[in-house]
Amino acid sequence: METEVKKTTGPRDVFSHLLSIIFLYVSVIGFGILLFGIIDVYFPDVLSDTYGWYAKSALRWPLALLVVIFPLYLWFTSYLERDLEKNPEKRALKIRKWLLYFTLFVATLVIVGDLVSVIFSFLNGELTLRFVLKVLTVLALALSVFVYYGWNVRKDVAASHDPRMKLFVRAVSALGFTAIIFGFVVAGLPQTARDRQFDDRRVSDLEQIQNQVASFWQTKRRLPNSLDELRDEVLAVIPPRDPETNENY
């Protein structure tokens, strides 16, 4: 059996399995960050006033990551399943078994750590809806990985050939794409993000002008008649202009 495996496997199989697992880890982390960000938008921390603008901007990186990595992961997984159907002896490939068991090990640790975190937070009086949703998110991601890869370890039949597992895989994939689409809706259109950047720049400029006016008053004991009076080439004081129109404020 081992001789047959060596004859039918090569570097391509090793790299394919490695890439599949790497894409899995990156996708799971990306979905975790994305879903945490969505929860932060709709259930902000009452002790922090930064979630309103920061949570939405924090969604862009996981969205950019998932748009590329998640479809690649699904394609690699489908490719490996088809390859295993044609070459069943590859199921005995050592790197495949190592990666599958390591993935199950990590998923088990995440589930156990998740439960410990729930108990600790309950005892610490921090069992808020926001926290519970994040715990359920981590638990759902870990269980999804555990169920699918646990099947691959225990069964010699591809998940796509079992009706229940096929339905499970399709449901998880559909939920994944739904989360990505909803993330784009929450994060807003690119033009909206660009407009927000202009607004942030204007707020910063107005704060700078306020400081320049205060410094002008401290020096000359009067307010300037116009913003042009604030200009001082020696001290490098130049009143900022509107970043979009380049006009004075």
From TrEMBL:
Ranges that cross the membrane: 21-39, 59-77, 98-123, 129-151, 167-189
Keywords: Membrane, Transmembrane, Transmembrane helix
Domain DUF5671 positions: 14-148
Domain of life: Bacteria
InterPro entries: DUF5671 (IPR043728)
One Pfam family of this chain: DUF5671
Protein name, per record: DUF5671 domain-containing protein
